[in-house]
Write the structure tokens for this entry.
Amino acid sequence: MTSVREAAVLLQNKVAVIYGAGGPIGGAVARAFAREGARVFLAGRTRAKLDEVAEDIRSTGDVAHTALVNALDERAVDDYVDAVVRQTGRVDVSFDLISYADVQKPLMEITADEFLQPVVTALRSQFLTARAAARHMVRRGSGVILAFGGGGAQTLAGLGGFKVALDAVEGLRRQWACELGRHGVRVVTLKSGGVPETIPEGTAGAGEIAESIRTRTLLGRAATLDDVGHVAAFVASDRARTLTATEVNISCGALAD
């Protein structure tokens, strides 16, 4: 008999791999996935941050596993996903939320290496993590690969290669969706237009930055970490089975489609 909880949650019995799970957005997504019944595998490069998220998840009786993984290392990513599948028999969701280590300066002031750093980091990581998961998803005939950031015409001065990296990831997402769709694998990007809670503590002008994010929206409020987690859980679930090759816009209208 199906329990009330099993009937209510979105990701019951799903296996989700989350890269960058120790960061604010990665942690929020991991917690939301676990609340919705997923068995979450948290990957990152900082043990203490991963353990903090895992402890939060376990404190509510849900399941979380942690591993130190460099999402730019081809062998490390492949071995990690293979190990998850050996343990669980499957991988249903892969979400890469690592930082792109971007340097934000005007283009006239930035070096070529600084400009290219987020572009190369984003594309390499998103390609490797998606491919590692897709190999297993294709065999099962189902799966969801998620990215975060989103492209589009809107941008701001002084972002260096960051917005270029987001646009490049969208090109990659379209290509993956085109090639994986016939195998039942969905590929979707979430874009927020900025989440004030992710501004590092002590950042100069943090209040002004947060307010500028809010004032660009149509609703007078910005997405919260909880909002990101809730929407990500829905998009990863079978209830969103018609969504692929697209962005899901949770920017409160700051990013017009």
About this structure: Residues 1-7 have pLDDT under 50 and may be disordered. The first helix runs from residue 4 to 8. The two ends are 44 Å apart (CA to CA).
